[in-house]
Design goal:
Strand content: 15-25%
Shape: globular
Strand order of the largest sheet: 3-2-1-4-5-6-7
Number of helices: 10
Distance between the termini: 31 Å
Largest sheet: 7 strands, parallel
CATH architecture of the largest domain: 3-Layer(aba) Sandwich
Length: about 350
């Protein structure tokens, strides 16, 4: 039997190769498996048949045929609402979670050597295992041990749930394989800026104002992540796009709540319309050092460096079961000194 700490990574039933728009979620699973294996952890992934991961062991919870059967039954009840099929309580989720529970009981050794990582509301109250809810970018997290992707999400959760953060709530950003995102364009097109978010009424007004202010500037909707380095800047991206753009050396111009930006160095934080004008003008004038932007992003988000942050969190959590927890005589803080 392996003496390595075993991570049980619980999937979600709509993560299937070429099903729905799930490429980013599959990328996260692959990166997580690779980075934790680099720290000598053993990774078991529980998911749908044929999903390709880099885990030490892929445990098939549902076959493709079973998946399609339960998906069909769920869609009949929920009237083909894909959002409800993937996230709401339905037959597919129920069967998937029930089978995961049985497989966990088979493969879980004990609380001192194993840790279970899940997302969303997959809680088995009758299993006294070491559960950790990871990659949290939503407000309804439930587990005792939690790892959030941003401080904003942590703060929002505290407000929504009327709680103070636990000592065992951690903030660890999403991780990336930096080789997937190249910084090979030091001279991007001078008149094209990328937009990477949903077009809300507020953002539509912003885009209209920017088009009027900069009539020769082309603002395009980004649909190809391999081209993130081709833009003079990225406008209003979500957290995931922000990091990918920075790894490509591209500055970000966004509202002040964007945690990724180092203001005036890797982008521009805005509170007013004139702030957006100023930020775009800085990009047009080539005032951002794209090499610095990439180097900083690589330092912060390279998955093999993020692995140490997860190892620190997991060791702290396992100390709750192995020794005196918060009162433990052992500190793992040196793992963060990388």
């Amino acid at each position: 039997m392996s003496s390595k700490t075993r991570i049980h990574l619980l999937g979600i039933p709509f993560l299937i190769n070429n099903y729905y728009d799930n490429r980013n979620d599959i990328e996260k699973i692959k990166n997580f498996s690779l980075m934790m294996k680099s720290r000598n952890y053993e990774v078991y992934y529980y998911g749908i048949e044929l999903l390709e991961t880099f885990a030490d062991k892929n445990i098939n919870i549902l076959s493709i045929n079973d998946y399609n059967y339960f998906l069909y039954k769920s869609s009949r009840i929920l009237k083909d609402d894909v959002e409800k099929i993937t996230f709401w309580d339905n037959i597919l989720l129920h069967e998937f979670n029930l089978k995961i529970k049985n497989k966990l009981i088979e493969n879980y050794r004990d609380d001192k050597t194993d840790i279970i990582c899940n997302q969303f509301e997959k809680i088995y109250d009758d299993l006294e295992f070491a559960f950790v809810e990871i990659g949290i970018n939503y407000s309804n997290s439930k587990q005792k041990f939690r790892i959030f992707e941003t401080h904003m999400c942590l703060s929002y959760t505290c407000g929504m749930q009327d709680k103070n953060p636990s000592n065992y709530w951690f903030v660890i950003p999403n991780s990336y394989n930096i080789n997937d995102y190249k910084n090979d364009n030091e001279n991007p097109h001078k008149k094209i800026i990328g937009f990477a978010n949903k077009i809300t009424d507020e953002k539509q007004l912003l885009l209209m104002a920017l088009s009027k202010k900069f009539p020769t500037l082309e603002i395009v909707i980004i649909n190809d992540e391999s081209k993130l380095g081709d833009y003079i800047a990225i406008l209003c991206p979500n957290n995931d796009f922000s990091i990918k753009a920075q790894i490509c050396g591209t500055p970000i111009i966004d509202f002040d709540n964007n945690e990724i930006i180092e203001n005036l160095k890797t982008g521009f934080k805005c509170n007013t319309l004139n702030d957006f004008y100023e930020g775009i003008q800085l990009a047009l004038d080539n005032k951002f050092n794209r090499s610095y932007i990439r180097d900083r992003a690589v330092e912060l988000y390279d998955m093999y460096k993020i692995a140490y942050k997860y190892e620190y969190a997991f060791k702290c959590i396992l100390d709750v079961y192995k020794s005196k927890g918060w009162f433990s005589n052992k500190s793992h803080i040196k793992l963060l000194d990388i």
